[in-house]
Design brief:
The complex is a heterodimer. Chain A is mainly α. In chain A, 72% of the residues lie in helices and 3% in strands. Chain B is mainly α. Chain B has 28 helices and four strands. Chain B is globular. Classes of the chains: A mainly alpha, B mainly alpha. At the A-B interface, α6, α7, α8, α11 and α13 of A face β1, α4, α5, α6 and α26 of B.
Chain lengths: 475, 636
């Protein structure tokens, strides 16, 4: 099952690349593959037993000398991250199809390759396989940002490549050292290590990907210059590779260094949370606000991961899913606004609620979930994260709670600047409400968020075994 | 019982969802009816729960019901559960009952508004949220309802979203309430780690095990939420601005239901508050301060809705005094009667505003008594009830709180008692100042020019009928509890607000104290009315002359300015500094105008690349160095 989830989009990519298809057919096939992928995932979900261990495990030896193998499988939390991936990728492919990207075969092929690679990242149980999938995920992104991005795409891509390659190299070194010192590259079979340097290599690589302050230099430009659906994937899904890395490698293999560096990581995450929230409050454009809020949210999720207890971990997974859906919806909505007004500058927008009820309703709904209004899925996630980190010291939770007030400020500012008050100078009277195709893409995403708000325990009940080695005791 | 309660809870949500999904497929009027019906169903369901509960033995009137596990982490679980006991039944009746009346009123009031459907969807969503708050069976669902009512309040204050002032007011209300939500969340974290549960009943059982400091902190956090939601000092500044919303919204959210949630919270969680004397006294003290300050500010307001808004703050101050000193039933009693008469006053003011083409400035009104006699009578009933005149409802409920303060028989009780009496005087003055200025005298030029009566009547049927019902409730609602004769409400609430006997005795006033309180309070209320008559009724004066005091009150004691200076500006300054000092030059590591620069220089690609690469390498290296620094310095 896991292998099918990985191979199906890769096969689809080959089909799209190799066959001389028209723009329409390449898009249709990509969308079909994306939807079948969602169906596959639902089937996986139904068959999942949530025993706490690896399920849908598959293994084939690769280099037996080094004990490297193709080893994939899903934990509860991986299943949710894969679900997030397939849903957001299907929405992104549909959006690209609707928006009409040029050089369609190449574009859709890359999107499918990306889908397969991300699923592989979330299911890899071998260090080298994980590293390969991680790289395979980044390469299509370089191209997608660099070729199909906005006017500043060159600079954005160079930064993105620079930061991520630096991170990847550190990770590669750590992977090799860890694998050789353990005698196996298998993740579940590997023991624990107490090497600070190897730990730091992984930590920095994931901190770049998340990103965490101060390694987020690539983020604003990449999110601003890429097309909306790629930005949605970058912030909604790809950033979660860092969360998965923290969970599956860092916490699993480095219990001692995690303990040693816990306070340091929490400091950085807290700084990033407050910093990102404040900068988001000042950001002059739609995507800037969403980008920096992503920085803040990823910092918050990292706090949950390093809270050291089951409460924080569950919160981190729940918030990863909720933020992935929120962020993807927001970027796609931002794309919709930009299409209609040809700008993302908040100062030039405004008054779009009048006569556009669908846009107003969806942006408002997503926005209030983004600011974690109590009762929403993201509230549930943030609540657990802060409750978890409270155990490490009340100050973390107090600062985090303060940052949630800041989140209310920047999200409300964004909503008002787009929807309310006088009509902005760049908003044409004839700008239409969301089209049926856009609704068809966005409504399912928002519906997922609402369903998750009604039952966040769907994720938190089914992510970790109660006695998971990743956490200490809970209340 | 719980089945009816679930129906009560979800019926308004169904209404809101239906209106949203149907969109333009239904007419605006149908949306209004749909919303009203969904709330009326909730009211009927609430009445059913009430009757079923009455048929049970008083000690068996509490039922819990859990729909499903809402949130969990290992063994720690929080269910989507509701508690149905006398306290929540009372709140259900008030919320769904007054709610459906006000939504029905809106059908007439909002007629012809643009985007009426959105309004009715929000109103139904609000009623659902408020019911979630009062029915919640644990702290987390309570907090969810707490946040959702704040959200609806935001949506409805900003209903006229083209008006910058409305949007600003809505944002302010949301952010101040988010501060309260945050302190509540912190209190919940303390409960999780100290008691391991967020369930009401389990926590009440074990609350005695908390250390004094922890109990105080928990109660403080909860009080923070209560103070923000109920617009008590120091988190009160959003409420007057919230009057930007349509008048029925002010009546429902900012008078009858949401703003009284803080009182409900303290009554509901009283076992926690009783572990923290300091916080109880703080609640009563803040209530007393608010009732006085808001009463003073109400004296000088010229916007009719703002007068009533300050009056609301002031009356909630009384309720805080009541629940702060442990007189829970009396506080809840005042909550109920206040919902009646304050909704009545707002809706009556709404009829006036509606008839005067949206004008809210009292200085342009006058002489409406002859033109709108029925509205005058309704407002008079509301005003007399507010001023605590017998035999109207406010008389019984306010005096019962004051008598309880007196019954403490210590200096704190006497102080609260005195402040409450002073408040009674102020209430008489500001209420009747408003009534006299608006209704007595000769019709002003503005009134003669703009008065627009609805087909010869004072308002459409939906408005006048609901106001009549509320006038009736405001008139007779107090009879459920008459000092010295019967305490129906107190007896009903007793199992829910049960306090140990000693404590109860402390605040149970004797008949003599009841009578004494009533005598003084009524005398002071009458004095207030007389003063208002002397200044505004007989002489039609503009205002008393005391320019300095007046300006201070008109500026609302400069709270807004202080918050701006203390919080908003530093935050904005930090945001600016971070953006321009750290983010742009250091992190983005970029030359100004990167996007433009790239385009300009793209011809000389190689040069640009090397230039950039060097900068990024520096930025990355700098980042890693900073990381290393942090790791070395704070390594645990």
């Amino acid at each position: 099952m896991t292998t099918a989830l990985i191979l199906l989009p890769l096969g689809g990519a080959l089909v799209v690349w190799l066959l001389p298809l028209s723009r329409f057919w390449s898009g249709s096939i990509a969308l079909l593959v994306g939807l079948v992928e969602v169906g596959l995932w639902i089937q996986a979900l139904i068959g999942f037993e949530f025993r706490g261990g690896l399920e849908y495990e598959q293994r084939a030896s690769w280099f037996s000398d080094l004990d490297v193998s193709y080893h994939v499988g899903l934990y509860g939390y991986s299943l949710w991250l894969v679900g997030l991936t397939v849903v957001v990728m299907a929405a992104a492919i549909a959006y690209a199809f609707w928006a009409g990207r040029d050089r369609a075969r190449a574009y859709f092929g890359l999107m499918l390759l990306l889908t397969g690679a991300i699923v592989a990242v979330f299911s890899a149980q071998d260090l080298l396989l994980f590293y390969a999938a991680f790289e395979a995920m980044l390469i299509p992104l370089y191209v997608l940002v660099g070729v199909w991005g906005g006017p500043g795409r060159l600079g954005a891509t160079i930064k993105f490549v620079g930061y991520t390659i630096a991170g990847s190299l550190l990770m590669l070194v750590s992977v090799i050292v860890l694998g050789l010192s353990q005698g196996t590259f298998d993740i579940p079979e590997g023991g624990t290590s107490s090497s600070n340097w190897v730990f730091l290599g992984f930590l920095v690589a994931f901190a770049v990907k998340a990103p965490l302050f101060p390694l987020h230099g690539w983020l604003p430009d990449a999110y601003r210059e890429s097309s909306p659906e790629v930005a949605a994937v970058l912030s909604g899904v790809v950033s979660k590779a860092a969360v998965f890395g923290f969970l599956n490698i860092v916490l699993r293999a480095f219990p001692e260094p995690v303990e040693d560096f816990r306070v340091a990581v929490l400091v950085l995450a807290t700084v990033g949370l407050v910093y990102g929230s404040l900068v988001a409050f000042r950001a002059p454009d739609l995507r800037g606000v969403i980008a920096y809020s992503s920085l803040a949210q990823m910092s918050l999720i990292t706090m949950g991961v390093f809270a050291g207890n089951l409460v924080g971990l569950n919160g981190a997974v729940l918030q990863s899913v909720a933020h992935g859906l929120v962020s993807a919806s927001l970027f796609l909505l931002a794309g919709g606004v930009e299409r209609r007004t040809s700008t993302g500058e908040l100062a030039l927008l405004g008054g779009m609620a009048r006569g556009r009820p669908a846009l107003a309703t969806l942006l408002m709904t997503t926005g209030i979930i983004a600011l974690a209004v109590p009762g929403s899925a993201s509230f549930a996630g943030e609540f657990l994260i802060l409750a978890g980190v409270f155990d490490q010291g009340w100050a973390w939770a107090a600062i985090g709670a303060g940052a949630i007030v800041l989140a209310a400020m920047y999200v409300l500012r964004l909503i008002s600047a787009v929807l309310h008050e006088a009509k902005g100078s760049m908003v044409p009277d004839e700008a239409l409400d969301l089209r049926p195709a856009e609704l068809g893409i966005l409504v399912p995403l928002v519906a997922c968020l609402l369903a998750l708000s009604a039952w966040p325990a769907a994720v938190t009940d089914h992510s970790f075994a109660d006695d998971t080695p990743l956490a200490q005791a809970s209340p | 019982v719980t089945a009816a309660a679930w129906v009560c809870l979800f019926s308004p949500l169904a209404g809101a969802v239906l209106i949203t999904l149907l969109g333009t497929r239904i007419s605006r009027r149908v949306a209004g009816y749909l919303s009203t019906v969904s709330c009326a169903v909730a009211a009927v369901a609430a009445a059913v729960s009430f009757l079923v509960a009455l048929s049970h033995d008083p000690d068996e009137r509490r039922e819990l019901s859990t729909a499903w596990t809402w949130l969990s982490a290992g063994d720690f679980e929080v269910g989507l559960s509701i508690i149905v006991d006398p306290l929540s039944i009372l709140m259900m009746l008030v919320v769904a009952g007054v709610g459906s009346l006000i939504v029905g009123y809106s059908v007439g009031y909002m007629d012809g508004e643009d985007e009426e459907r959105r309004y009715f969807a929000y109103m139904a969503l609000f009623v659902f949220s408020m019911l979630t708050l009062v029915l919640a069976g644990n702290y987390l669902i309570l907090l969810a309802g707490w946040g959702l009512v704040g959200l609806c309040s935001y949506l409805l204050i900003g209903f006229h979203h083209e008006r910058p002032s409305a949007i600003a007011a809505a944002k302010k209300a949301f952010v101040m309430n988010a501060v309260g939500d945050a302190t509540m969340a912190l209190a919940l974290f303390l409960l999780i780690w100290n008691l391991g549960t967020l369930d009401y009943l389990q926590s009440f059982e074990h609350v005695g095990e908390l250390s004094g400091t922890v109990a105080t902190l928990v109660a403080l956090g909860l009080l923070g939420g209560a103070v923000a939601k109920s617009a008590q000092i120091p988190l009160h500044t959003w409420l007057p601005d919230a009057m930007e919303g349509p008048t029925p919204v002010s009546a429902l959210i900012h008078a009858a239901t949401m703003v009284t949630a803080g009182v409900y919270l303290i009554a509901r969680l009283h076992p926690v508050f009783e572990q923290a004397d300091f916080v109880q006294n703080l609640a009563a003290g803040l209530g007393a301060a608010t009732l006085l300050v808001a009463g003073l500010i109400a004296l000088v307001q010229v916007d009719i809705k703002r007068v009533i808004a300050y009056s609301t703050m002031s009356q909630i101050g009384y309720m805080f005094v009541g629940v702060g000193i442990g007189a829970y039933a009396n506080g809840m009693f005042h909550l109920m009667t206040h919902a009646f008469f304050k909704a009545l006053l707002f809706l009556g003011a709404g009829i006036v505003i509606h008839a005067l083409a949206g004008e809210q400035d009292m200085r342009r009104m006058g002489g409406l008594k002859e033109l709108m006699p029925r509205t005058w009578i309704a407002m008079l009933i509301g005003g007399l009830a507010l001023a605590g005149m017998p035999p109207l409802s406010g008389f019984f409920s306010k005096d019962s709180i004051l008598a309880s303060a007196l019954a403490r028989e210590d200096w704190w009780g006497y102080l609260l008692f005195a402040v409450g009496l002073l408040g009674a005087l102020l209430t008489g003055i500001y209420t009747f100042r408003m009534l006299f200025v608006v209704f007595l005298g000769e019709p002003s030029a503005f009134v003669r020019e703009h008065l627009h009566l609805h087909g010869g009547k004072e308002g459409p049927f939906s408005m006048t009928s609901t106001v009549s019902v509320l006038a009736l409730l405001a008139a007779v609602g107090g009879f459920v509890q008459i000092a010295g004769l019967w305490h129906l409400l107190g007896d009903f609430l007793d199992p829910a607000t049960y306090v140990d006997r000693e404590h109860l005795a402390l605040v149970k006033p004797s008949t003599a104290q009841d009578w004494l309180t009533s005598l003084i309070a009524v005398a002071l209320g009458l004095a207030g009315i007389a003063i208002a008559w002397g200044i505004y009724g007989a002489r039609r004066a503009e205002a008393p002359r005391a320019p300095v005091a007046r300006r201070v009150f008109e500026q609302k004691l400069y709270f807004d300015e202080a918050y701006d200076f203390l919080f908003y500006r530093p935050a904005a300054a930090f945001a600016r500094a971070f953006t321009s000092v750290i983010e742009r030059p250091l992190i983005e590591g970029s030359i100004a105008g990167l996007a433009g620069g790239t385009r300009l220089l793209s011809g000389r690609l190689g040069l640009v690349q090397t230039g950039y690469l060097r900068t990024y390498a520096l930025a990355i290296a700098g980042g890693v160095a900073l990381l290393a620094l942090v790791f070395v310095s704070v390594r645990g």
